[in-house]
Each structure stands twice: as structure tokens, then as C-alpha cells.
Amino acid sequence: MSTWHIPGDLLDGYLAGELDPVRAMSVDAHLGGCPVCRAAVPYEEEWLESSWQRLEDRAGLPRPRPAERLLRLAGLPGHVARLVTVTPALGRAWLAAVLAVLAFGVLAARHTADALPFFLVAAPVLPLAGIAAANGPRVDPVHELLAATPLSGPRLLLVRSAAVLAVAFVLAGLASPLLPAPPGLSAAWLLPALAATSGCLALSTRLSVPVAALTTGGLWLTGIAVAAEAGGDWRVPFQPGAQLLYGCAAALLTVLVHRRRGRLDPGEPR
Amino acid sequence: MSITVKGLVKHYGRNRVLDGLDLAVTPGVTGLLGPNGAGKTTLLRCLATTLAPDSGTVDILGLDPRDRLQRTALRRRLGYLPQDPGHYPHFTAFDLVDYVAILKEITDRRERHGEVRRVLAEVGLSDQAKVRARKLSGGMRQRLALAQALLGEPDVLILDEPTVGLDPEQRMRFRALVSKVGESRTVLLSTHQTEDVAALCERVVTVDGGRVVFDGTPGELAVTAAGRVWLSERPPAGPHLFWRTADGRYRTLGDRPEDGVPAEAGVEDGYLLLLGDRGRAAVA
Hints:
The complex is a heterodimer.
Chain A: H1 8-16, H2 21-33, H3 35-39, H4 45-59, H5 66-73, H6 78-85, H7 92-111, H8 116-122, H9 125-132, H10 143-147, H11 154-175, H12 183-186, H13 190-203, H14 209-231, H15 240-259
Helix pairs in contact in A: 5-6, 7-8, 7-11, 9-11, 9-13, 9-14, 11-13, 13-14, 13-15
Chain B: E1 3-12, E2 15-25, E3 28-33, H1 40-47, E4 55-60, H2 68-75, E5 78-81, H3 93-103, H4 109-122, H5 138-149, E6 156-160, H6 168-182, E7 186-190, H7 194-200, E8 203-208, E9 211-216, H8 218-223, E10 229-232, E11 241-244, E12 250-253, E13 261-262, H9 267-275, H10 277-283
Parallel strand pairs in B: 3-7, 3-8, 5-6, 6-7
Antiparallel strand pairs in B: 1-2, 1-4, 8-9, 10-12, 10-13, 11-12
Helix pairs in contact in B: 3-4, 3-5, 9-10
């Protein structure tokens, strides 16, 4: 330890903030190694504690993922942004699968007009696959642990489903203009996707989420095949009359989900 | 009472796992003992509100988990460590506990981070906060799962086999932590370790076949075996419940073997005798 200590006038200047930078740094350095002089520097304990706390908060902060930062920039509260981006289905595997399906749909449609239905039929199934991969004990490794928290059940399921739906919609929306079809037709997957998602959530009040997703997807594909066969044209299930039906179905099913949301909780008596 | 259970029934298919189970748990540490398939985990899942029973009633802290609003209110006051807590491999220890803290509605970032640091320190994982879950040892992951259960200082802590994967030192530390929590709150833990029960629990409840078959103190469970524990030089003849001890003698439960001398009964003896044939299977 140093036997030299800061003279009173120098310390007064330091405390008053009147020293030039070089001398102030020199005093700083001495204070760092001399407990005697440090004891002579008054400080506010509460301020120091809160400063340390802030420093610790900064230093120990987990670095948010890019998607989380993006959502925060968009104005979403930090904890909601984290909830959304941690959705299990939003991993690379699902995103890659969505991109692959959409790319295939677009390329095939551009190559041959007969392939256009593939895109329109596949797009509503993508969010279903995402919802199935985002919820339930088989896909979420900490499902049981999370199920006992206040935000589990319908709230978590709906946040995750919304996250999956938003990502699928954005990607499919970006791919739609690339289709060799009039704008009305290339966006004809939108309402069916909404209806299928609402249907899946409505069925989840009775069945497990993956089974509900599988059932809804199956019903969609069967319905499309039947309608196209009956109408004699693959465009029939995507025409304005059918779109009105999908819109009404989506609205009704959303109301149903809201009314029966309690049943989306694993702790709800059946 | 912190927890009152009446006539709880739960089926998995045709298998009646809980068979009209009654239970009352007071503040302090209560141990739940029972063989595999006895219904311990199902009971704890019903209490932790992650599983709805087929019939019967549960009352925890005056709240009824059948009611949606009361269930949510209960979850705010509950800490739960499931038998298989799982983890997100790409999450750090801090990330995982932070995520659960969000789901426990601790939304203020500063408050949440302070709480995450506190519980990680409680389980001795402060130094591992930035380590990814997949790189933690099994014991560390178990402590991490325990950390999340401690978030928000819950009034009721439900722990399903919490000492699995812990080494002796960690187990001692765990006992100290749980007994501290149990001073002011209710802890219900299931275990296969009768030593944990003897060292930690004020009460022990033994479950078998979906029903409570014993409810009392660890001392009372040990007393049920008094006069039925023997040490002998040779293995007993006949269908006895016995095993060879570290000093080469045979510890027999039940009727006195030919050269048997009386031995002091412990919690494990009482537990094995209580289970009868199932206890015999456990020893075998």
C-alpha cells in the first residue's frame, strides 16, 4: 500500500470536479489502490448500489436474438418479444421447410401454369405445421415446466400461434407477387390460411394441438379436392364465393376459440 | 391446511392411477414416498395444475384449480419442478430461468433479472449463468430446474424427485435449501430416497396403488417396523424380505430368522414393510 496520500486541497478539487483530466485520472488511479484515501471520498450508498445494479444489469444481460431486437424496435415490450421469438417452431428447421415449400410452389407455378394450385393449397397448411411444432409435450422440451406458470395455457398457445402465423403470412406474402397469376388469385391463400388456423385452434379445445393441426390440414386438403372435383375447375375453391365462406368461417371460429379458450389449458377439467 | 385433496381419481385409459386419494398437507416439508407407478407423479401434476383429475377436489391455499381464474391465481403462488423438467439446449442457464420468469409474469426487466440472479445464486449456479443448458451436467440441469421453481418465492413448492442426478454434496446443499424454504412455506416433494425423507421431511406420506397408505412423521414410519428388523449371519430361510449389508450380515424385515438379533428400525424398513410384496420386489 502507498504511504503517500492525497493532499486535502487536491482531494477537494477532485471532489468539486475542478481538476484537469490528467490530474483527475491520476487521483482516480491512486484511489483505486489506496483504501485510506478512498475512505475520505464521501459517497451516497444508495446511488452506488443502484449504479452497481445498473452495471450488473448491463453486463449480465443476455444478448437478444436479432428477431427479438427487431420486434423491440417495432415497439413490442421486451418480455413479449422474447415470448414470441422463443416459440419452439420458429427454429431453422420450420423456417427452412416453409421457404422450401414456397420456393417450390413459386418455381413450379412459373414453370407450368398447372402448378399454381400447389402454392395456394400448401400456403394455408404451413401455419398449421408451425402451430403443431410449437405446442405440446412432444415438441416443447419444457412443456410440463411451463404448464404450471400463470401465462401457460391459452395465452401462451395464442402468442405462439400468432407468431407462427405472422411469420408464415409474411413469407407467403412475399412469395405471392412472384406467382404468374393475377393479384386476386395469388393472394387467395390468405383467408383459407386464417380459417384453417382458427379451425386448428378451435379443435385444440378438444384434441391435442398436433392432432388438431393434422385433422384441420386433412380436412382442408380433402375439401379442396372435393370442391375442385365437383366444380370441374381447381379455381373453384379460391373464387370470391368460397373466399367469403373462408372469411366467415375464420370469424366464427375465432369467436369460438375465444369463448372456449379455457379448454386450451392442460389443467382445465374435461 | 395448505393443500387439501379429497377423493382424487385419475385414469390413464383403463388404468386407475389415482383411486380416491385423500391428503392434507400443512406448511413445512412433506415427503411423498411410493414405488414406481404408485401415482406420485400424477398426484403432483394434479396439484401443480398441469393435469386435471377425473374427479375429486383439490384445494391449495384456498384456491380451486378447476376454476380458470383461481387456477391462474394459484399458479402465481406455485413453484413446480417436474420429474422431467427438460431444457432448451441453445438457452443459457440465465435465458431459461429468465424465460420462465416472464411466464410467471415478472415483466419488469430489472426486477426479473435481479430475481433470476437470486435464484441462480440460491442453487449455486451463478458462475454457470452464461453457460448453455446442453453443456451443463445432469446435476447442474436439475439445480437449474430447481432455480426456476424458486422464482417469485412461491408459497407452495412442488418437487417431483428433485434429488435425482445430484451428487452427495449437491444433495446436502439441496436439503439445506429446501429446509430453509420449508420454514415458512409448504414444500411437497416426491422421492425414492428414504434418506432424504428422514433428513428433511417433517411428515411423510406413502402412496401405493393410487391411495395414501401411510401419513405421519418419519419417526412414526420407522416405528411401524419396530421389532420386525433383524440382523443375522446367515441368509434367512423362507420368503423373507432381506438384503446383505456392508458388514456382510443380513438385514431381514418381518419374522425373526433363526440366528437373528434385533436391530434398530429406520424409515426405509418401515417403508419396505408397508409395501409388502412390492417392498420385496424393490429389494430384489
